[in-house]
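Q: My labmate handed me this sequence with no annotations at all. I'd like to see what the chain might look like in three dimensions before we decide whether it's worth expressing. Could you predict it?
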Amino acid sequence: MPNADSLPSRSPAPEVAGTAAPPPATRGSQALRIGGLTRLTGVDFPGRLAAVVFLQGCPWRCVYCHNPGLLDAAVPGALSWQAVHGFLRQRRGLLDGVVFSGGEPTLQAALGPALAEVRALGFATGLHTGGMYPERLQRVLPQLDWVGLDIKAPQHRHDQVTGTRGGGARAARSLRLLQHSGVALECRTTWHAGLFGRDDLFRLADALAAQAVSHWVLQTCRSPGLAAPVLDAEDLAALAARFARFECR
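A: Here is what I predict for the chain of 249 residues:
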């Protein structure tokens, strides 16, 4: 997931004469705890210029997490949804979409109302999720145009990588829901040899291919103190052969 930054203090632009004002932020969405905002990105919502709204709270403790400030669900939001909503109103016609990221966005019940408001403003909607809450994901699927699903590890390594028990089965259910939803889907895995080995990586690729995943992104992690990736061009070609679309970032 991308890194969060902050929203500048700006007043919403006035409405253009002769156009209907978009609906205001509702009470349900006001409960959204927002940890940060990326105002413009061309890489976090495929094919679209987008803003990314980072939501507070995550049940997992992945060792490579690059947004640790978003992990604690009890931390108050750094930004109000009213401020973000006003910012998005200014960007109609300039941005194509809005992605909700985290943390884990589906942790917050206010995600659904916020997605509805983003759609009412005319934006396409995207979601970054690890799939920990399949029931909540299922409820918001009708309001989504695209989902980036983080596949953390093979099933037998999932608890170790995320530091949480039982998440692998929940993520697998989320994948099945997405596969049957018709919503555009990108599965991606952050990997380095210190998390799990090359053989397990290939087992994961085989498992995803067996579930008819068509688009898989491998995000190689290079961090101090972690084992370096050990994939060569032949390995990458072998992984790519399993999917209709494969990317290594």
